[in-house]
Amino acid sequence: SGLFRDMFPTQIALIGAAASAVAGRDEDDSENPLAAAARAQGKIGPRIFGTSPGTYGAGVEELLSRGEWSAREEIGRAYLEATSHAYGGADGEAISAPGVFEGRIADADLLVHTGDDPGRDILEGSADVAFIGGFSAALAALGRNADVIVLDTTDPKKPRPRSVGEAVSRVVRARAVNPRFIAGQMRHGPRGASEFAETVDRLVGFAETTHAISGALIEAVHDAYIGDAEVRAFLLRENPAAAKVIAERFLAARRRGLWHPLRNSIDDDLTALIAEAQASEVAA
Question: Which pTM was predicted?
Fold first, then answer.
């Protein structure tokens, strides 16, 4: 991340030095694929990549927020273009390396995304969607597939790997549709409504970028937030802008074929909610 890059250049240098040391070892190809690749290429290639100095994020956040894309490969290309620099050397400095990270992703079989903060989950904040989703979309753009693992390291002694679908499902079941969570957020008025909108946005974002989120999860959140008359009324009363965002994101999931509810009235109901939210904003 850009924050890690700025705060820990020494650690970046150490990781780069460690990768170079492994790549330079005289070991059998079967025991050391990194060294085998270095010998085949005649050089030790970079292993640490990120956006250019002074930039932050994964390069896909604005594209996702606007929703102005037709295929997730467009998101993948934006992710690859943003990850244009390699990092390393004695000071962890940046070197422009367009296209090199694309080659690394094309050879990847697995992405491991760690999370060590017990106070947040992957549906909070946009970073997880941008990085995990950007990587997944980049694979699609390259015509490749790889496993995506969310590694829960909140207890370092017992790390728990989960597929991205399992990780999101766990958060939805434990938090997003939990009646206690919903009731607690409703006590916070407009801010609580914003939390619902952020949860929906992240959930649909994962569905759009990874294609690993079941429609049943989207439907469960819809039923908890919009299908429940009390919560729906709360959204319109306390934060019509959040209600509008929620309805628009659910409609986006429908339009992109990520959710196929059994009720034929869903689209009309969501369109009606958008109209009500807009009317409430004007009245306010």
Answer: 0.91
